[in-house]
Amino acid sequence: MKYLVLGARVAGAxxxxxxHRLGHEVIVTDxxxxxxxxxxxxxxxxxxxxxxxxxxxxxxxxxxxxxxxxSHPVPVEAIARGLDVYxxxxxxxxLRGEDAPVWLAITGTNGKTxxxxxxxxxxxxxxxxxxxxxxxxxxxxxxxxxxxxxxVELSSFQLHWSSTLAPQAGAILNFADDHLDWxxxxxxxxxxxxxxxxxxxxxxxxDDPLVEKALAQVPAHRKIGFxxxxxxxxxxxxxxxxxxxxxxxxxxxxxxxxxxxxPSGFHxxxxxLAAAALARSAGVSHEAIRKGIEGYVPEPHRNAFVATVxxxxxxxxxxxxxxxxxxxxxxxxxNIVWVAGGQLKGVDISDLVARIASRLRGAxxxxxxxxxxxxxxxxxxxxxxxxxVSRTDDGAMGEVVTAAAALAQPGxxxxxxxxxxxxxxxxxxxxxxxxxxxxxRRL
Length: 443
Description:
Layout: E1 2-6, H1 10-21, E2 25-30, H2 36-40, E3 44-47, H3 52-55, E4 61-64, H4 73-80, E5 84-87, H5 88-94, E6 102-107, H6 112-125, E7 132-134, E8 149-153, H7 156-160, E9 169-172, H8 180-183, H9 186-193, E10 201-205, H10 209-217, E11 222-226, E12 235-239, E13 242-248, E14 251-257, H11 266-281, H12 286-294, E15 304-309, E16 312-316, H13 323-330, E17 336-340, H14 350-356, E18 360-365, H15 370-380, E19 386-388, H16 396-407, E20 413-416, H17 429-441
Parallel strand pairs: 1-2, 1-4, 2-3, 4-5, 6-8, 6-9, 7-8, 9-10, 10-11, 11-12, 16-20, 17-18, 17-20, 18-19
Antiparallel strand pairs: 12-13, 13-14, 15-16
């Protein structure tokens, strides 16, 4: 067969190399550059944006990098020709052999990486050969053997470009506006997410009305809910600050305490419950789940304490790249000087500002869509002192932190929870968080 791989970076290169090893003819194209391993393997690489008809000549199937939107001319033309178009996780699923690992998958607007790595910690505590993969870590096409079970983070982009991928268990953490510019509207975004439930066990957050409704409608063989409240039969939840499982004939089995969960915050307790539900679906004991929670090391830039300076705490939650994620961390603190702004990706920030206005001591706003954030603050936090930082060079975050320090009082928290993406000014949310932490340490 002849494959066109659209995108020549991590996922695209891994896909092309895997197909090449299987003896298929492969062409790879990318607008800017390609992994040197492709040409070293003798794979044809085309740099630029050639005519879609030329690229698709003689092609049987198309593998797209996850970020390629449905509106891109190449997949549009390919679908019009009746070709199968999908992304790297779907390819990995199709390439599975007899010794392929069990897939336990996680998706949602926020909390995916934390839940996926929490799950991997639980699986490791059970003595299983495992890793956190998918939207993070090793490409899935390179994880066809050597693992018993894998924790798989799947984005809405990856799920959109899938059709047969059906993890043995899949969890949806939450639904909120995000990536609407990519998907077109909220319904298409949530529909993509529900593809994680194609397999045998569907797990969902019953505290989220949209997830609860979707879970009720999915024709899965088994459904499990999780909640921050007392769990009904068949669910996991919280009873008097204890994490409990009621999936075994309704009997409540305690497997940890809320205070054990790291990072702190109610949203991370929900993430731990989701991970525990997935682990139980794979037969992991409650004791191993407890050990996994106790031994979990949080990923960086997620509600991460940086330092206390002059009685003011500084917290890096740069991973809060949309309003829903920002709300989770903003709700964890009182008296906040909020560092916000970046690329809003077509999402309205007004509701978030209205909900957290009473907690704010001040705000420092930066980034491409800062005017929208400032306008929302003017409507919903009328007397709040707001500092606008217009510069976009390497010194911008230093100015931001200096301004935040001037607004803060002892006992306050300066919280970087941008509610927006970072690529207008930084290479990633990690780069943005590192810049914040570096500026704090210079105070």
